[in-house]
Design brief:
By secondary structure, the chain is mainly alpha-helical. It folds into 3 domains: about 100 residues, no CATH class; about 80 residues, no CATH class; about 70 residues, no CATH class. Helix 3 runs antiparallel to helix 6 and helix 7 crosses helix 9.
Length: about 280
């Protein structure tokens, strides 16, 4: 397992304010990503693939007019090549995740359908792929998010008398329970230690407040599950995800975003100090 002591120790003490942008996901991509081992870079790619997914759907809808998020694994030109290759049934382009080609197989067979929610289809293939990641921490992170998202949509579907099985995506015990159980808690109240928390959040009618609570829960999950990882890919992956949370909320609330960022930097430094003592 690669050790990134120097990389983490060299993280700049940057804060964001109204006149200066924060240490961003894009900067992580430019400064940290190139130093990762090939294996660890593939784990981080799973994070960036979510941006690629949005770009793919955007291109399918808008063609040449699509606006591309540059913080992904692929440029607009590369994505168009991938889409063209997949639609034509050409041999898969080396390095492109298998779930992308599985999506396009489904897309070609169902393109004319008006009832397909393509975001859900692509997300289902994406999560199936990501949750099988060889890195346990990364795989568990994606499974946690899949479960949380499915619980929220299942609770909402039940509230509005929709068929829960039609909106839950992916596989696994949680997804299966959500699709089939008639119990108030889908039989998950004791199986998942976060089910009740998600259920309470789903009842919050203030959407922005609910989203902040969900991000706080995700943040805590990252902390709890990377607590003993000081200089490994798990720590860097958690840092990247946290940066994306900070970046999103800083657009809405610059002051609180700054506090979040400073807390993150302080946590990293504290972890380094503890590890230095052990070393």
């Amino acid at each position: 397992m690669a050790n990134y002591y120097c990389l983490v120790a060299g993280m700049p003490d940057v804060a964001f304010d109204e006149s200066k942008s924060a240490y961003t996901v894009e900067r992580f991509r430019e400064e940290i990503y190139p130093s990762l081992s090939k294996e660890d870079a593939e784990y981080v790619n799973l994070f960036f693939n979510e941006r690629d997914n949005a770009n793919i759907l955007n291109i399918l809808r808008n063609g040449e007019d699509a606006r591309i998020d540059s913080v992904g694994c692929y440029s607009a030109e590369e994505l168009n090549d991938i889409i063209s290759s997949a639609k034509n049934g050409d041999a898969p382009i080396k390095g492109v995740p298998a779930y992308v080609y599985r999506f396009f197989e489904y897309y070609k067979a169902n393109e004319a359908s008006e009832n397909v929610i393509w975001e859900d289809v692509l997300s289902a293939f994406y999560y199936e792929y990501a949750t099988k990641c060889p890195n346990r921490f990364v795989a568990d992170w994606f499974m946690f998010n899949l479960n949380v998202n499915n619980i929220l949509i299942a609770l909402s579907a039940r509230k509005y008398k929709m068929n829960v099985a039609d909106v839950v995506i992916g596989d696994g015990e949680v997804a299966e329970a959500l699709r089939t159980s008639g119990a108030r808690d889908f039989g998950l109240g004791t199986a998942l230690d976060y089910f009740e928390s998600v259920q309470r959040m789903s009842e919050n009618s203030r959407l922005q407040e609910r989203e902040r609570q969900l991000d706080d829960m995700r943040w805590k999950w990252l902390d709890d599950n990377s607590v003993f990882n000081y200089f490994t890919i798990e720590k860097l992956f958690a840092f990247l995800v946290k940066l994306s949370v900070i970046e999103r909320w800083s657009r809405l609330d610059a002051e609180k975003g700054m506090l979040r960022y400073n807390e993150l930097i302080a946590e990293l430094k504290s972890g380094m100090d503890k590890q230095s003592v052990v070393l």
